[in-house]
Amino acid sequence: MKRRGYKVPRRNLVVLCFSPNICYTQVKGYERAHKEHGLEVDLKEGTWTWNHNTYHIGEARPLNHKEGVIGVYNRASTQQLDSMVHKAREATQSPGSCFDDD
């Protein structure tokens, strides 16, 4: 089913990213994430693109690389913010994170 436009102002988008120290994540605004990571958002399609991969807003990418953008979310949606919090925890606890026991 194709989404028809994403009716949210770009200023309502928040971006979950890995911080330079991959033990942590950070939340950035769209403009900052666009400048620092090359993030692109298509509000007409309701998608975001990073590193040549496209996902829906509110959806995170697989965490197989511990760098860059993790997901783009609508801060006006409690459901999407809840998803973002869970993805942030997963990102810092997934295999290869600095918290794993050796």
| Biggest beta sheet attributes | 3 strands, antiparallel
- Bin the helical content: 10-25%
Chain-averaged pLDDT: 89
Question: Tally of extended strands?
Answer: 6
The helix-and-strand class reads: alpha+beta
Task: Give the CA-based shape.
Answer: globular
Low-confidence stretches: none
Spatial extent as radius of gyration: 13 Å
- Tell me the series of helices and strands, N- to C-terminal: EEHEEEEH
Oligomeric assembly: single chain
Walk across the major sheet and give the strand order. 2-1-6
Report on the architecture of this protein:
The protein has 102 residues and is an alpha+beta fold. 24% of the residues lie in helices and 27% in strands. It has a domain of 67 residues. The strands form two sheets. A three-stranded antiparallel β-sheet has the order 2-1-6, with helices on both faces. It is built from two helices and six strands. The chain is globular, with a radius of gyration of 13 Å. The model has no long low-confidence stretch (mean pLDDT 89).
